[in-house]
Amino acid sequence: MSEEISRQVLGAKQEFAVLILFFAACVIWGRNAIAQSTRTQEIEDQPAERVFHNIQVLKGMRAGDLQGAMSFIASSLGVDCDHCHRGEDFGQDLTKEKSRAREMMRMVREINESAFRGENEVNCFTCHQGHQNPISLAPISLLAPTERKKEAPTAGPSAGGPLPAVEEVLNHYVQALGGQAALDGVTSRIIRTAPLRQQNEDSKTVSITYQKAPTKVLVSKESPGYSSWVGFDGQRAWAQDSLKSYWGILNIPQRNSIMRESELYPGSRILKQYADVRVSRKEKIGDGEAYVVEGRSPEDTTEEFYFDAQSGLLLRRHILEQTVFGKFQMQEDFEDYRGIGGVKMAFVMKWSSPGGAWGTRISTKVLEVKQNEPIDDKRFEHAPASKP
Ligand code: HEC
Ligand code: HEC
């Protein structure tokens, strides 16, 4: 594989790398119809050592959990995947960092077993805090007398006024988007997006999302030399790529991401499918204020939705996903709402997550939207056959 292609593959992988989940919890809790119906005894349910070829420490972990674990490690150290891996084959042991990381994984396991009753209390981030080498010396600034803050912090809950009911906030949102009737009138969408900032001219990635009511979705990403597809056909979530590599396994981050993408408008599942939904607070965001609705998704991510108190529109979605090492957070900001066929949708989605270079799911802008075009159901079941 040429370097160019492997870079693109890596780019695409890293994009997926960000989202995480904890499928085991869904299974244990068994309360989750979607997770259960999408759960098939497929490759991602097998132990990691059966799917990947050089697993020495993480034996017994589900293959689908590996990607989330790696994302967590990389963000904890503030590094990219190639800090420990080289080239296309991630199973090779080519760096001293990878062997050191194995020792660290064993150490973390021992600490948690001996001192924390086997609970995941200590993880890579506890010590590393985003650095390759943890700092074990308190910085001088901590000891120096600090100036007292005169003003109250700008963020955080704002005083005064009772909070509205969840239904009220969500109704306002639906109204702001054009009203329920208009939203129900949109039964399918084809959305073409591009990275908000194109890295360079020849690495053009076009991403197309196909949605069909109520829950079918396909996200197809194509760049020269590498394409990937992640879909949900209403029953089963799946992933495939043009190299038919093991990246074609559906990992937990992808599963959760595709379930979010199945919403015809973001947050449409909150009222009927989320657990423990409530308006938790009012918070300053930018120049305005937002009501924060929190809840637990059917995939068992904890999410917060920030709705503009004035316009009613969704400004931000904050997602906490569980990995085998610890929680991983991501934020999606929605901007540039535009009207299209009687409904509004955001045309700019900005992603942020810890870890800088690799960790940020690519921010995108919408290039084109087609609504109510017929889409064949088959499209949501598997990758297009004619592709390389
Ligand atoms: C700090 C070092 C480190 C970083 C950063 C890291 N990994 Fe790993 N990776 C490891 C170690 C160690 C193993 C082997 C684990 C074991 O032996 O149980 C591994 C194993 C893997 C494997 C299994 C390969 C096989 O066939 O055995 C894949 C795939 C992988 N990593 C992907 C990634 C991706 C993608 C990223 C970036 C999001 C990443 N890794 C970041 C240390 C790292
Ligand atoms: C108890 C604190 C602690 C925890 C927890 C911890 N580390 Fe470390 N780690 C250190 C210290 C201290 C160093 C630097 C000294 C050294 O390398 O011996 C280090 C160094 C490393 C290095 C080598 C430095 C480099 O160049 O990248 C890697 C890789 C690493 N840790 C990975 C991990 C991973 C992966 C985890 C989670 C599975 C982890 N560490 C958890 C304390 C910790």
Straight-line distance between termini? 15 Å
Helix content: 25-40%
Radius of gyration using CA atoms only: 22 Å
Largest sheet: 12 strands, antiparallel
On the 0 to 100 scale, the average pLDDT is: 82
Q: What is the CATH top level name? A: Mainly Beta
Percentage of residues in strands: 25-35%
CATH topological fold name = outer membrane lipoprotein receptor (LolB), chain A
The computed structural class is alpha+beta
Query: CATH H-level name... which superfamily?
Result: Lipoprotein localisation LolA/LolB/LppX
- The neighbouring-strand order within the major sheet is 5-4-3-2-1-12-11-10-9-8-7-6
Number of strands: 12
Describe, in plain words, how this protein is organized in 3D:
This protein is α+β, with helices and mostly antiparallel strands and 388 residues long. The protein is globular and about 55 Å long. It has helices at 3-17, 23-29, 33-38, 48-51, 66-77, 96-115, 124-128, 140-143, 166-177, 180-184, 252-261, 270-273; strands spanning 188-195, 206-212, 216-223, 226-232, 237-241, 275-285, 288-296, 302-308, 314-322, 327-340, 343-352, 364-371. It starts with a helix and ends in a 17-residue tail after the last strand. Strand 6 and strand 7 form a beta hairpin. Strands 5-4-3-2-1-12-11-10-9-8-7-6 form a twelve-stranded antiparallel β-sheet. The chain is built from twelve helices and twelve strands. It has one domain (1-134, 164-382): Lipoprotein localisation LolA/LolB/LppX (outer membrane lipoprotein receptor (LolB), chain A). The structure holds heme C (2 copies). One heme C (HEC) binds at residues 13-14, 17, 52-58, 66, 70-71, 73-74, 77, 79, 81, 83-85, 90-91, 97-98, 101-102, 358.
